Amino acid sequence: AQSVTQLGSHVSVSEGALVLLRCNYSSSVPPYLFWYVQYPNQGLQLLLKYTTGATLVKGINGFEAEFKKSETSFHLTKPSAHMSDAAEYFCAVSNGNNFNKFYFGSGTKLNVKP
Amino acid sequence: DTGVSQNPRHKITKRGQNVTFRCDPISEHNRLYWYRQTLGQGPEFLTYFQNEAQLEKSRLLSDRFSAERPKGSFSTLEIQRTEQGDSAMYLCASTRDVGNTIYFGEGSWLTVV
Q: How far apart are alpha carbons A41 and A23 in whole angstroms?
């Protein structure tokens, strides 16, 4: 069974500050891990994904995430927040053998203050 | 790629009516997924097609829900005898093959009044 927990349904940062969105997963098999972003009334856009190999993954818009197996975590970071980063972010896990389905966390809404 | 297209984007219907949503995946994507997202929650898996074959269905997909993908191209999701609890955004996604990025459409909002 697989599941995702996102700590903090709302995160607020100042423009230029570090963004840290937390994601912990549970998986009985080596996981594939993803971060998606959703803007209001829109679908989900892939930010980055981890499948195998390097545990530090870089994505679009300056975001990156690090897979830490010992901590079962896949936290999303960005060194300097921009106003345009305000959106809802979803962490997801799927099994490595077949992308039949993703299990999503409940999401974290990021607010960026000027 | 023109992206995953979903129609209609918004639908308001009275309880008990039937509704149908359509999804046009990215060309040549043989895998297609339907998810449901309610306010404040992440998307939940509903069903999955590989070409025209429906390979997996979630227990969330009650007998009032049916999905088809004739000829392995576009897909439809029909909800019969809608209930207020069906109000949600229905997301479609597609991918070319296992291991590739899954692309989501912009969703179809359903409001049952």
A: 23
Cα B9 from chain centroid?
12
Asked whether the beta carbons of residue A41 and residue B106 sit closer than 8 angstroms, the reply is yes
Query: Per-residue pLDDT tens for A63-90?
Result: 999 999 999 999 999 999 999 999 999 9
Condensed to tens digits (0 to 9), the pLDDT of residues B1-17 reads 579 999 999 999 999 99
| Phi, psi (rounded to 5 degrees) for A60 | -80, 165
For chain B, report the end-to-end CA distance as a whole number of angstroms.
36
pLDDT at B109: 95
Average pLDDT of chain A is 91
Q: At A85, phi and psi to the nearest 5?
A: -80, -10
Contacts of B107 in chain A (CB under 8 A): 41-43
Q: Do A46 and B103 touch (CB under 8 A)?
A: yes
Contact A105, A37 (CB under 8 A): no
Token pair for residue A67? Answer: 């897979």
